[in-house]
Amino acid sequence: MQIDLNSDLGESFGKYKLGLDEEVLEQVTSANIACGFHAGDPTVMKTTVALALKNQTAIGAHPGFHDLQGFGRRKIEMAPAEIEALVQYQVGALAAFVPGHRLHHVKAHGALYNLAAKDRQVADAVVAGIKAADEQTVIYGLANSELIKSAKAAGMKFAQEAFADRNYEADGSLVSRSQANAVITDPAVAAKRAVKMIQDQAITAVNGDVIPTAIDSICVHGDNQAAISLVKQIREALTKEGISITSQL
User: Fold this and answer.
1) How far, in Å, are 16, 62, 155, 160, 219 from residue 152 at the CA level?
2) Which of 60, 121, 164, 220 can bridge 194 by disulfide, Cβ–Cβ 3.0-4.6 Å?
3) How far does the chain reach from its first CA to its final CA, in angstroms?
4) Angstrom distance (rounded) from CA 26 to CA 29
5) Assign residue 116 a region: left if phi > 0, alpha if psi is -120 to 50, beta otherwise?
6) Is the confidence at residue 224, as pLDDT, over 70?
7) Inter-axis angle of helices 146-153 and 110-118, to 10 degrees?
8) Would you tell me the crossing angle of helices 225-240 and 187-200 to the nearest 10 degrees?
9) What dihedral angle (degrees, nearest 10) is formed by the CA atoms of 42, 151, 56, 200?
């Protein structure tokens, strides 16, 4: 068994520092780097790419809605053609900082990610934007989501993603961050969940329902010291169970 560990990085802006990118990059195999619309700026993008290269971490773009104030977590009404251009623009911007201008993957952020998971029209627009920028890259998306279905239909490579530190609804969507039980903060619980997800190839929802799914990558967060501890425990638990950690999907 093998699994990729990915994390959302490069979310600082100007003089404002967010996240512990240097420490996270020592633990994960893939980095989703903000492209300046929900977080990040050109200098942060360039610096984060350099850090990822130094750690031999696979580099991916993390495009979101143009919403710095709301950190890309607010839905913005846009036509499919606008979403396509929004994504293509951000993917191309990050690729400009990468040697050879080729990205390992692309993963949408926040509200755009969640919308694409449920709305096929949005999913198709996101996939079209990614494909226009780089038809060889891998599309990361919520397991069993509309985005994964769209990527398949477009003939794109894809990776089904799960979250060790987030709870799930019975329909396979993430519990909203507005709910108290949305995020799992206990490292031991998150590590145990990660191992079980991979071994069972299934996700357990908050109501107890078991949702079968192939899982290629697990997203982990690293925006504080507690989160770094969580990432380390997840990695240790996976290694202990003989699960190889690699970005080679």
Assistant:
1) 38, 20, 5, 11, 21
2) 164
3) 11
4) 8
5) alpha
6) no
7) 70
8) 40
9) 130
Cα 12 to Cα 19, 34, 84, 117, 201, distances in angstroms: 7, 9, 25, 26, 34
pTM beyond 0.85: the answer is yes
Instruction: Residue 138: name the closest of 108, 177, 173 by CA.
Output: 108
Number of H helices, E strands in the chain: 8, 10
pLDDT over threshold 90, residue 221 = no
User: Hey, what are 114's tokens?
Assistant: 């969640």
How far is residue 243's CA from residue 50's CA, in Å, rounded to a whole number? 28
| DSSP string for 148-203 | HHHHHHTT-EEEEEEETTB-B-TTSPBPPTTSTTSB---HHHHHHHHHHHHHHTEE
> Tell me, what amino acid is at 204?
T
